[in-house]
């Protein structure tokens, strides 16, 4: 089966360049060396994926969807792409190629962008908070780190100055990953509000997960 590599158009709007930087950093194993390749369950979390242009046999999709269970218990906030494709990858390798993909049209307003960031924070929790994924520790630490950061800032306001390190670190890391310089600058400029809003989205996921019974499912 084949999954799209989701390129953003060559000259994307402002916020599209931000997402392009995030994508190329998160899935560097593929974007750092774009070529026809495949991945399975063992390296599932290192490659981009999506069901919007996924080509596979109908019965495979139906079977994976039948086994899908959301952690947040809200169909509007589920990360079904990740869970469904993770189940498929247990038995079948998924192929990627630079010549096969879809053009992603990003949000064009600040309101739309941050609404999407909040939403993606929750879906990120839904898809990657299960034990054993590449991002499990990061997702689970995010809410606690956010709460701790707020408490520390309230007690010692000057510590807020340390938050200036995030844009600097984001820029340095993006450039190290060979992200376009303009995209890296936008990533740096938006890193603080992005971290704050996505943290709120992840916290929403935690709350909904607990209200949904807090069940744990480990990827096989």
List keywords for this structure.
single chain; 220 residues; mainly alpha; 8 helices; 2 strands; globular; Glycosyltransferase 2-like domain-containing protein
Q: How far is the first residue's CA from the last residue's CA?
A: 20 Å
Total count of strands: 2
Given the structure, what is the number of helices?
8
Low-confidence parts: none
Spatial ordering of strands, largest sheet: 1-2
The helical percent reads 40-55%
Largest sheet: 2 strands, antiparallel
On the 0 to 100 scale, the average pLDDT is 86
Taken from the alpha-carbon principal axes, the silhouette is: globular
Structural class: mainly alpha
Q: Roughly what fraction of the amino acids lie in strands?
A: under 5%
- Please give the radius of gyration in angstroms: 18 Å
Element-by-element helix/strand order = HHEHHEHHHH
Count of distinct structural domains: 1
């Amino acid at each position: 089966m084949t999954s799209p590599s989701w390129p953003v158009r060559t000259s994307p709007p402002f916020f599209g360049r931000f997402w392009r930087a995030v994508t190329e950093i998160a899935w560097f194993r593929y974007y750092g060396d774009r070529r026809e390749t495949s991945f399975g369950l063992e390296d599932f979390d290192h490659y981009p994926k999506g069901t919007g242009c996924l080509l596979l046999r109908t019965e495979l999709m139906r079977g994976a969807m039948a086994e899908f269970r959301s952690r947040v218990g809200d169909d509007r906030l589920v990360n079904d792409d990740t869970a469904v494709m993770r189940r498929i990858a247990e038995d079948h390798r998924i192929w990627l190629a630079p010549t096969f993909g879809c053009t992603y049209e990003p949000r064009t307003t600040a309101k739309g962008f941050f609404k999407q960031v909040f939403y993606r924070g929750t879906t990120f929790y839904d898809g990657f908070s299960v034990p054993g994924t590449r991002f499990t520790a990061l997702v689970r630490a995010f809410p606690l780190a956010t709460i701790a950061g707020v408490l520390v800032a309230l007690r010692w306001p000057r510590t807020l100055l340390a938050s200036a390190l995030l844009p600097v670190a984001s820029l340095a890391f993006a450039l190290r990953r060979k992200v376009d310089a303009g995209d890296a600058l936008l990533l740096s400029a938006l890193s603080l509000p992005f971290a704050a809003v996505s943290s709120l989205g992840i916290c929403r996921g935690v709350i909904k997960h607990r209200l949904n019974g807090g069940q744990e499912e480990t990827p096989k």
